[in-house]
Predict the structure of DUF721 domain-containing protein.
Amino acid sequence: MKNKAERYQKAVNIVEIMEQSSFAQIMQKGLAIHELNQKFNRSFPQEFQDLFRIGRINGDTLFIEVANAIVRQGMLFRQSDLLTLIQQDYPQVKRLNLKISPEFNRVMP
């Protein structure tokens, strides 16, 4: 009983525990990807809006899913500008991996 009572009397900083949890880390990554999506959307013409989304960052590669080949070619054409934009927040990113996803158009509103 003594150990149980001591355990409940120990001071715990719940904020610190939450910040270090795996859920908090997932949320931080999700928010960062959302912000990056918004930056990308602002840097492209209206025709490209909502036709791509940032997937994830793995090492030095940023994965981007696009709706069709036109969007992919537009991004490849502006690849160096996009990498400069990305590297402001993620200096480790050196490459873009653009994948055409046929289901993308059906999922988007």
Notes: The radius of gyration is 20 Å. The mean pLDDT is 80.
